[in-house]
Design brief:
The chain is α+β, with helices and mostly antiparallel strands. The protein is built from eleven helices and 14 strands. The strands form four sheets. Strands 4-5-10-6-7 form a five-stranded antiparallel beta sheet. A four-stranded antiparallel beta sheet has the order 11-12-13-14, with helices on both faces. Helix 10 packs across helix 11. The chain binds flavin-adenine dinucleotide (FAD). The site of flavin-adenine dinucleotide has 30 residues, from strand 2, helix 2, helix 7 and strand 10.
Length: 285
């Protein structure tokens, strides 16, 4: 295995583009190193991106959005008061990842690129309308987060392509988001279902919403029917009932040791309802 520590993304891309075997990028390493030690993946080239300048930065953009470097850890996100105030749901998804030790390393980008349908930070990013900047041998492109994972363990990135940053849009006024997951234990477990809600209010009325579900399909789902159930409402009981039904209808989970299909379908509705209420309260605050 060859370990590389490039000083620029251009250098990293050149190494990746020239590599012919198994390549992995090292952000926090909390997936890669576990997989390596378990013998699940033995990279021929391990490209450490953490030393590239700017990868640890959280930057406010001129339009009010945020640019999050690919090596920013969960702990660093949680410590950023302004970002937490804007996007509490995005941050709380990431803060559910692992333990205090894992939080010191694990990143949003690694969580996304590992390609787990149960990745805790991904529903929040999808609901937020986050995008990734991808740089590769053929230039730079932007992709919505929901288009990055294509199936479990696989992303839309082409060989040699690297995510260089995650961008969150400007939050604006009267807006809130929230992420909830269900796990059989109180922590350190994989989501049986996850749900994120991001919404915007005009007075008491919901004027825009994005709702996503994790762990109920091969990739995180962005569910338009859930948004349609609450847009134009004051999130009254009838709207919440419709939202829960839409979330359950969209959920297409598998059964496994953490929960049978029917349970996951039911929990998707319960979490959507609860997360929407939290996001609504945050938007009103
Ligand atoms: C004890 C423990 C508990 C955990 N609990 C949870 C949990 O509760 N919820 C959860 O969702 N996850 C959990 N995880 C998994 C893991 O911590 C997260 O997925 C984490 O966010 C991965 O981030 P990382 O920076 O460590 O990724 P890394 O291990 O560095 O990389 C992960 C993948 O992303 C790719 N990658 C990294 N950076 C880039 C880039 N810039 N461009 C393209 N590809 C890139 C790598 O090639 C690799 O395939 C846990 C892990 C451990 C060890």
């Amino acid at each position: 295995m060859r370990y590389h520590a490039p000083a620029t993304f251009d250098e990293a891309i050149a190494i990746a583009a020239g590599a012919s075997g198994v390549t992995r990028y090292l952000a926090g390493g909390t997936d890669v190193l576990v997989q390596l030690r378990a013998g699940m993946v033995t990279p021929d080239d391990l490209i450490d991106l953490k030393k590239i300048p700017g990868t640890h930065d959280i930057t406010r953009l001129p339009d009010g959005g945020w640019r999050i470097g690919i090596a920013v850890s969960g702990a660093e996100l949680g410590a950023h008061a302004e970002l937490v105030a804007d996007w509490p749901g995005v941050v709380e998804g990431m803060e559910l990842v692992g333990s205090t030790q894992v939080q010191g390393r694990a990143t949003l980008t690694g969580n996304l690129c590992n390609g787990s349908p149960a990745a805790d930070s991904v529903p929040g990013l999808v609901a937020a309308g986050a995008t990734v900047t991808i740089q590769g041998p053929n230039g730079t492109r932007e992709l919505p987060v929901e288009q990055v994972p294509v199936k479990p363990g696989k992303t839309a990135l082409e060989p040699g392509e690297i995510i260089t940053a995650i961008t969150l849009p400007a939050r604006g006024k009267s807006a809130g988001d929230a992420y909830l997951r269900f796990i059989p234990r109180t922590e350190m477990d994989i989501a049986v279902v996850g749900c994120a809600v991001s919404l915007v209010l005009d007075g008491d009325k919901v004027t825009a919403a994005r709702i996503s579900l994790g762990a109920v399909a091969p990739t995180v789902l962005l569910v338009q029917d859930c948004a349609d159930a609450i847009i134009g409402t004051t999130l009254d009981d009838a709207a919440l009932d419709k939202l829960a039904a839409a979330a359950s209808a969209a959920a297409k989970p598998i059964s496994d040791k953490r929960g049978p299909k029917e349970f996951r379908v039911d929990v998707a509705g319960v979490l959507a309802r609860r997360a929407a209420k939290i996001a609504y309260e945050r938007a009103k605050a």
